[in-house]
Structure formats: structure tokens, C-alpha cells
Amino acid sequence: MLSIHDGEALARALTAPIDPLIKRLLIDRSDQLDCDLIDVHFAIVEPADTPAIIERTLGLTLFSDGALLPDWVEAHGYCFEAVFDLTQAFTQVLLVPDHAHIDAGIRTFCADFASEGPSASKRTR
Q: Domain for residue 72, yes or no?
């Protein structure tokens, strides 16, 4: 899992071998936030990542009963962007490439909550 928690980690991620569309999304979100990512943590799922790895990295329970639900998930076509607004001062963003080499359960989790754009309403389990 690629973890981005500050401007230095973002700079390293932008040189990493990840999908150029995901790099563009990271740049766009960074520009929109207009900060050094102190209040936001981005995590990009990689092929070997399991639900347990994601939960450990984010420090959240997502894939079992009583799990935290995303505040919103957007399907971009090439990845899902799942946002967890944990407090007014901190947000976790999980980017899940929509590719066959990513765990199907993780992609299904995102697809179950996904909207086709930011104006669609949040779905619940």
C-alpha cells in the first residue's frame, strides 16, 4: 500500500510507478486542499494488499460487521476514491484501482457505495 501523509510522500508517490490517472487525481486533490496534506492521509491500494493490510494502514475497521462506512465513494472509471471524514480536522482517502489484479472484495466494497459523481448521495449498507 502506498501511504501519502505529507508533501514529501506525495512527491515520492508522483515518481512511483502508479497509474498516471491516479497521479493526476492526487495532484488535483492536493491543489484543491491547498495544504501540505497534514490533515489528509491518502492510501493507494496495490495488488498484494488485503483487507487486513488496508485496515492496519488506515487504523480503521472497514470490512466486518460494525465497520466504519465511507462518507462517500466516487467511481472514476479507473479507480474508486473512498473518503472517510474522521473528524473536522482529519480525513482518510482510500484510492482503489479498478483493475482485476486488486482484491475483488475490496473493489466490491467500493462499488457498493460508489456514485458516478460528487453530487450523488451517499449510500448506506
A: yes
